[in-house]
Specification:
The protein is an alpha+beta fold. The chain has 22 helices and nine strands. The strands form two sheets. A five-stranded antiparallel sheet has the order 5-9-8-7-6. Strand 6 and strand 7 (235-241) form a beta hairpin. It starts with a helix and ends in a 5-residue tail after the last helix.
Length: 512
């Protein structure tokens, strides 16, 4: 973490929200660790210890603060762009990879030895993978105690505890209070379920401001798959089905005042949502809406190129739009090859109508996207696809169903690119786009994209005009020239791409 003690202490004294989640402060005189925005009186500098991750503070013997609630902090993004293996392992831990398996299995999934993985975690996060998973369980359980009326056993199951006894013992050891006492600290009114919505669950997911929700929603709206997703009234809504069988709908809206996304999860009609499904759902949503991004660090890294300055100033809180499901996004990307966004959306809607697995949903108008196996066996004639494109969709679905292509959140982006480009009809642009949105590779960059080239050309011409250079029409930069310029944007080229697409959308009809 490139933050010295002086910077951390100044951020803590001023309660600077830009640093929230970037570090945690352990106070040796109280044994408590806090967020930089904690409302308590700042301790003396010599009594402070700084940690890049809550797990490091927890593993060092500090207890989470009950006033600033470290469990409600934006996700830690300190590792992003520094150690790809750690980032991939963390995504898997967030999905519960250590709930049923050990560090050895986790290390195998990211392609390293277990001892090396432990060394990487200690170097970048200050805590072992097991310590990170344990802290995640504790903090997620605390959030559920504060924000929901779930029974204690359900909270324990949702957070990944093997038993109610282990849950009680761990929470008491961490907070010096029982789970019941922790829940009583906050009013029940904030957790009440609105009439007519029994069975639904509402959670708050924190982000680090600024957050350009309107632009993100605009992007998702143009690409929402009919029958699966809907955007309207400043709300994103979708149907879902997990691998474990749970299905339902999710509504997401932004509360800018509280700096959180409000998420309402509604199980399908006549069904219930297993508590153990909550953690994977939250992990998917954090990735889809890029809630762990650090706008300050991103903008500082990209601002070294003056050509991007105007785009950065226009949308300082821009996020990379992720996806709920990597397979769904990849199919949508294949459908979008060489056609307009509107045409691809229409075809995607037809595909869903023909192939979706109908399920009793809370809203019959929305159904989950078809599974790889179902799509692989589907007849794709008369959907508006060319024969070659239909064969590509089928080949891709079969490869995913067979396990030959993995869109696992811990998948290595380079490995996925290679596997995708070996399939007929999938080239570098599609592979980069999938890596950018499905795997959330912060350095993915589809340089051949016409929209990126147009936007960068326009920004360069704009910069030349501001320096009193002779006025001339913007000449379209080549792919190689754009790649050369993008070298200075590493490791945040994906964010540069989104800024360029957004600039194009603001000034013309973006067809990507």
């Amino acid at each position: 973490m490139e933050l010295d003690a002086r910077t951390c202490y100044r951020a803590m004294r001023t309660r600077d929200a830009r640093f929230d989640g970037r570090f945690f402060t352990g106070v040796v005189t109280t044994g408590i660790f806090c967020r930089p925005v904690c409302p308590a009186r700042a301790p003396r500098a010599e009594n402070c210890r700084y940690f890049p991750h809550a797990a490091a503070a927890h593993a060092s013997g500090f207890r989470p603060c009950l006033r600033c609630r470290p469990e409600a902090a934006p996700g830690t993004s300190v590792w992003a762009g520094t150690e790809n293996t750690v980032a991939r392992a963390l995504r898997l831990i967030t999905d519960g990879a250590l709930d049923d398996a050990g560090v050895e299995a986790l290390a195998e999934r990211v392609g390293v030895g277990d001892r090396h993985l432990r060394r990487l975690f200690l170097r970048h996060l200050g805590a072992t993978p097991v310590a990170v998973a344990q802290t995640q369980r504790v903090l997620f359980a605390k959030r559920l105690l504060d924000e929901t009326d779930l029974p204690m056993r359900s909270v324990a199951n949702a957070a990944g505890f093997a038993s109610l006894r282990r849950f009680n013992d761990t929470m008491r050891a961490t907070y010096a209070r029982t789970p019941t006492e922790l829940r009583s600290l906050y009013g029940r009114g904030a957790r009440a379920v609105p009439a007519g919505e029994r069975g639904s669950l509402t959670l708050s997911l924190a982000y680090r401001p600024p957050y350009d929700w309107e632009t993100l929603l605009r992007y998702l709206s143009g690409r929402a798959i009919p029958g699966v997703e809907a955007v309207g009234g400043n709300v994103y809504r979708r149907a879902f089905r997990l691998e474990t069988g749970e299905a339902g709908t999710i509504d997401v809206r932004c509360d800018a005042t509280a700096r959180v996304l409000r998420v309402r999860i509604q199980p399908a009609a006549g069904t219930t949502l297993r508590p153990a499904a909550l953690l994977p759902i939250v992990a998917r949503l954090r990735r889809q809406f890029d809630l762990d991004a650090d706008p300050q660090a991103l903008n500082a890294g990209l601002a070294t190129d003056p050509s991007l300055g105007a785009a950065l100033r226009r949308h300082p809180g821009l996020r990379v739009p992720g996806t709920w499901d990597g397979f769904e996004l990849a199919v949508r990307a294949i459908l979008g090859q060489q056609v307009s966004v509107r045409a691809a959306t229409t075809i995607a809607g037809r595909l869903v109508a023909r192939c979706t697995e109908r399920a009793p949903a809370a809203a019959p108008s929305l159904q989950p996207f078809p599974s790889p196996a179902r799509l692989a066996a589907a007849n794709l004639d008369a959907l508006g696809l060319t024969g070659a494109r239909a064969r590509t969709v089928t080949a891709f679905a079969r490869a995913v169903a067979a396990g030959d292509v993995s869109l696992d959140p811990g998948q290595d982006a380079a490995t996925l690119r290679t596997a995708l480009c070996e399939l007929p009809g999938i080239g570098p642009w599609t592979a980069e786009y999938i890596a950018l949105r499905a795997l959330r590779d912060p350095d993915a960059f589809p340089a051949s994209d016409l929209g990126l080239r147009r936007a960068f050309s326009a920004l360069q011409a704009r910069g030349a005009a501001r320096t009193s250079a002779p006025a001339q029409a913007a000449r379209l930069v080549s792919e190689s020239a754009l790649l050369r310029a993008a070298e200075s944007w590493r490791p945040w080229r994906a964010y540069a791409a989104v800024h360029l697409w957004t600039w194009e959308a603001d000034h013309a009809s973006l067809d990507r």
